[in-house]
Design brief:
Blueprint lengths: L6 E5 L7 E3 L14 E5 L23 H4 L26 E4 L1 H7 L6 E5 L9 H14 L4 E6 L2 H13 L2 E7 L5 H9 L3 E5 L3 H15 L2 E2 L5 H7 L1 H9 L7 E5 L4 H15 L8 E7 L4 H8 L11 H13 L19 H10 L3 E5 L1 H14 L5 H15 L9 E5 L7 H9 L16 H9 L1
This protein binds ligand F0G.
Length: 449
């Protein structure tokens, strides 16, 4: 196994580094329990010598793999044969230069770019990862799958599962997921199990259930999912005319995106396809700020792959002792034990990254601004804009640097947060509906006010 194939799985633990065939179903290293990466034998893959070569695929959109915003870049995630690749048209997402949101964040008008991943088929960035992971699931002939979710993973997984003919089970924390997302899981035919607990409880249960029942796990512990999520960065580069931004700003929850983005840039640099790696800012909500606390206060670092496990163990033991459960209106990132923590630390090292936390109030205001001046997004996504505003105020990000914010989910995912914000005039951008009598003159008076 290993050198004759295009891709293999490898443990990230420097003292283990076990390798496994790409056809094995593993979500953690069976030898040491650490996270697994997908690695490539690049000399066995016909990678184009410049990124702009991928643009030719747009001329061939009848081919579903060329139409897919994931598989258009297939040489950069070459782990399965074309015949097994799954696509439902994911990745047709837009990078919008947005002057008004730039102004809100304190940036020069032409410097802010919004990557709308809510435009995916299930309404979030997860579809990028699911296209890749379900291709692997088909490769290994999985019959049933499962995930724990704050909502979007469950929506995306259940859509791809029925497309691929797999039975799907989702674990969600009771009362912890937004209505739009729950409605999707039910509508797409998943078995939906609501656990009395939070996302971290669901994550622990789903791993145990998958191990016991042999279900295919679709959380971002699954290294194939992160391969699909790398393509969000390729599309940002593509839409910036094959150049990299100075900064990428992304919300942080289970830390799959930040992990995938750092890997994407590292590989592009190693392949000579980009000269410069952008810096990355990862934004937590203050009510779910494990990463911020660990990195900024406890000084946890990648440390050249030797992460200090004692710091993490002590931190989690304290959370348990306090019976801590995270709380934020951005329910998508309401997570206190992010499974990809170590890979995220690697991304921070690769991208000279930084971490910040923003309040729910800041998230809701930023979300309203994206709604008012852009295409809208769900609360967790707006954390990126709120975080950017902090970083510009602090002088960490220059107002003339080119920044791409990843807006991870569609505004209709969480109508409750939106309606409450506007109806109850909770913030500076609230736009409540006006009560009117059923009377033409009165209605005209109101419009002309
Ligand atoms: N934004 C949205 C809209 C999300 O749904 C999530 C994660 C994140 C950001 C955080 O991304 O985990 O890569 O750091 N949602 C997961 C779920 C956990 O179950 O849907 P991350």
């Amino acid at each position: 196994m290993g050198m004759t194939e295009t891709a293999f799985q490898m443990c990230i633990n420097p003292d283990c580094r076990s390798r496994f065939d790409r056809g094995q179903v593993l979500f953690k290293c069976p030898n040491c329990g650490e996270l697994l990466d997908i690695q490539y034998n690049w000399d066995k893959i016909a990678v184009p010598d410049k990124l702009s070569s991928f643009a030719a695929r747009w001329a061939n959109r009848q081919n579903p793999l060329d139409f897919s915003g994931v598989w258009r870049f297939r040489e950069l995630l070459d782990f399965c044969p074309d015949t097994r690749k799954v696509t439902i048209g994911e990745g047709q997402t837009i990078l919008e230069q947005n002057c008004a949101v730039a102004n809100y964040a304190g940036m020069n008008p032409d410097c802010l770019f919004l990557q709308y991943e809510g435009l995916n088929p299930s309404g979030s960035f997860k579809d990028n990862g699911m296209a890749a992971a379900f291709s692997h699931a088909k490769m290994v002939q999985a019959k049933s799958c499962a995930c724990a979710s704050t909502g979007n993973t469950s929506a995306s997984m259940s859509l791809y599962a029925h497309t691929c003919g797999l039975k799907s089970t989702v674990f969600i924390g009771s009362g912890r997921i937004a209505f739009g997302k729950l409605s999707q899981a039910m509508d797409y035919g998943a078995q939906t199990i609501q656990i009395r607990g939070d996302f971290d409880d669901c994550m622990a249960q789903v791993q145990a259930v998958c191990a016991k029942l042999g279900l295919y796990l679709l959380n971002s512990l699954n290294p194939f999912r992160l391969e699909g999520q790398k393509t969000i960065m390729y599309r940002i580069i593509e839409q910036m005319g094959w150049s990299v931004p100075d900064w990428v700003v992304v919300p942080g929850g289970n830390l799959g995106n930040s992990s995938a983005f750092g890997k994407a840039f590292l590989e592009l640099k190693e392949l000579g396809l980009i000269q410069q790696i952008p810096r990355m800012a990862i934004i937590n909500a203050t009510g779910a700020d494990t990463l911020t606390d660990l990195v900024n206060n406890k000084k946890l670092t990648w440390n050249d792959s030797r992460v200090d496990q004692k710091i993490i163990d002590r931190y989690y033991a304290d959370l348990t002792a306090r019976n801590f459960s995270p709380h934020t209106c951005a329910s998508a990132i309401e997570i206190s034990r992010p499974v990809n923590l170590k890979k995220c630390l690697r991304s921070i090292a690769v991208c000279d990254g930084i971490v910040r936390a923003v309040t729910d109030e800041e998230i809701c205001d930023a979300k309203a601004v994206v709604g008012k001046y852009g295409l809208g997004c769900e609360p967790a996504s707006a954390a990126s804009i709120a975080g950017l505003k902090h970083l510009v105020e602090q002088g960490v990000i220059g107002k003339d640097e080119r920044v791409a914010c990843v807006l991870t989910g569609h505004p209709l995912k969480d109508p409750n947060v939106t309606v409450n914000y506007h109806k109850d005039s909770l913030g500076q951008f609230s736009n409540p509906p006006i009560e009117a009598p059923n009377d033409l003159d009165e209605i005209i008076k109101l419009i002309q006010q």
